[in-house]
Write a structure and sequence with these properties.
Helix content: 55-70%
Strand content: under 5%
Number of strands: 6
Distance between the termini: 85 Å
Strand order of the largest sheet: 1-2
Shape: elongated
Radius of gyration: 31 Å
Length: 476
């Protein structure tokens, strides 16, 4: 059988048959083919391209598909070996510049799927030519659609890659970053476990608590957010592969998706499986929506944390000034000596970006028509941005803010002495009316509770302070 050209750079590049569209010239030195080139022309929108990890996920799926296709006798030994070598080369991080397509393209991600097919095809043909020279035989060229994309469609490959990269980055980036921040907070929880401080509700003085107890609330919120991420991965592990164009599995052998998912599960060590309903997997994005919701929950907990840190650190003379945040850099170009809560501000901005990304994902997941969601590129772009921003911001906040946190003990003690709401802890012993009288007297005279108790003749200041210390030790 006469082989097709493996080196041409015209509209029939990489052995593709005529596609009846206006011919394009593929850029010199490019490994991609005409479909990628047309996308560069037709979708020159913005600067956002797919992250390297997402391309890696696509290549990993192509490799797994080749394994299953060869194992079942659909892909020849020559084509299989060449495709595997090409995929392994790309998985090692080579030729990253060969994936230039923008996020803003067809909603199924077809152009990026074909970009990956074409690059793998070109590399595979190079490997195949080298082998053929050694054995003195010439076979059929590797084809991007017939061989690299065998038993697949963009409609099942692209969403499967979305899930693959979401799981990969969650395990390698996000979850370790959450644990790192929790670990730093736990160190401070132990360090400040016995320090009493003023509690505040409605931004008003309230019952006292320990700083250790206060930090425990943040730790629990982050732990629950981490659990939400892990829970959302249950649906992420289910892949659309095997559904091909509309979820019916047309042009794919029975059980193909299950076999590919098993190969990926073995490679990554996570429980990937083919989705129970491939029609739903191809037409919907519920798993991505739930995953985005978990990221939003994490962002909400982090925003609360950041805002509380900067409020408690406000001052140094005219604010709360109870927590001393690390002074990492000058805070003003005009006010000498000013230091700002910059880590809190950076983390807060990241959280707002995550909220915005989640809104986009929510809108996109609710869209699409009939048998396909056509908003997948923007969904995975926003998910990856949120995941990466949260990872970096948590690492920075843990290392550059929490780790260096100290307390302004005199200020905390003064606020504790001035806090009238602490009388609530003595109300069961004093009675509500006596406690109210002491509070009103202290407020009227702008004095401490102990002084007011002595003025009213209930206790000496020493007796009242002893009562207060005892009840604080018992309840806190």
């Amino acid at each position: 059988m006469k082989s097709k050209s493996k080196n041409s750079k015209d509209s029939d590049q990489q052995g593709q048959s005529s596609d009846y569209f206006a011919p394009v010239v593929v850029e010199d030195g490019a490994l991609w083919g005409t479909q990628t080139q047309r996308s560069l022309i037709n979708f020159n929108i913005g600067k956002q391209c797919f992250e390297a990890d997402f391309i890696t996920a696509l290549v990993a799926i192509k490799r797994a598909c080749a394994v299953v296709n060869h194992r079942d006798g659909r892909l020849s030994v020559g084509h299989y070996d060449a495709i595997i070598q090409a995929c392994d080369t790309l998985l090692q991080g080579e030729y990253r510049d060969q994936f230039p397509l923008r996020v803003w393209q067809t909603g199924s991600g077809t152009q990026t799927n074909m970009n990956v097919n074409e690059v793998i095809c070109t590399l595979a043909n190079r490997f195949q030519e080298s082998i053929e020279k050694q054995i003195g035989e010439t076979g059929e060229a590797v084809h991007p659609n017939d061989h690299v994309n065998m038993s697949q469609s963009s409609n099942d490959v692209f969403p499967s890659a979305m899930h693959l990269v979401a799981a990969q980055q969650s395990h390698t980036l996000l979850l370790p970053a959450i644990d790192h921040l929790i670990g730093r907070l736990k160190e401070k929880q132990i360090e400040f476990a016995a320090v009493h401080t003023v509690g505040r509700t409605h931004m008003m003085d309230a019952l006292p608590l320990t700083i250790g107890a206060m930090l425990s609330a943040y730790i629990t919120q982050l732990t629950e957010a981490r659990d939400a991420v892990n829970d959302s991965l249950t649906a992420i592990y289910k892949l659309a592969i095997g559904g091909t164009a509309v979820g019916s599995g047309s042009n794919a052998p029975t059980g193909f998706g299950t076999q590919v998912a098993e190969v990926l599960a073995q490679q990554y060590g996570w429980p990937f499986s083919a989705h129970d309903n491939l029609y739903a997997a191809v037409s919907g994005e519920d798993a991505s929506l739930r995953f985005s919701g978990a990221l939003k929950q994490l962002a909400a907990a982090l925003l609360k944390l950041a805002n509380d840190f900067r409020l408690l650190g406000s001052g140094p003379r005219c604010g709360f000034n109870e927590w001393q945040l690390p002074a990492n850099e000058p805070g003003s170009s005009i006010m000498p000596g000013k230091v700002n809560p910059t880590q809190c501000e950076a983390l807060s901005m990241v959280c707002l970006q995550v909220f915005g990304n989640d809104l986009t994902v929510s809108m996109a997941a609710s869209q699409g028509q009939l048998q396909l969601n056509t908003y997948r590129p923007v969904i995975i772009h926003n998910l990856m941005e949120s995941l990466q921003l949260l990872t970096d911001a948590m690492q920075s906040f843990a290392n550059n803010c929490v780790a260096g946190l100290t307390l302004n003990t005199p200020q905390i003690e003064q606020h504790m002495a001035d806090n009238l709401s602490v009388i609530t802890l003595l109300a069961p012993q004093l009675g509500y009316d006596v406690a109210s009288a002491i509070v009103h007297q202290a407020h009227q005279d702008n004095s401490s509770l102990a002084v007011a108790a002595e003025v009213l003749g209930y206790y000496t200041q020493v007796e009242f302070d002893r009562l207060m210390r005892d009840v604080l030790d018992k309840q806190l």
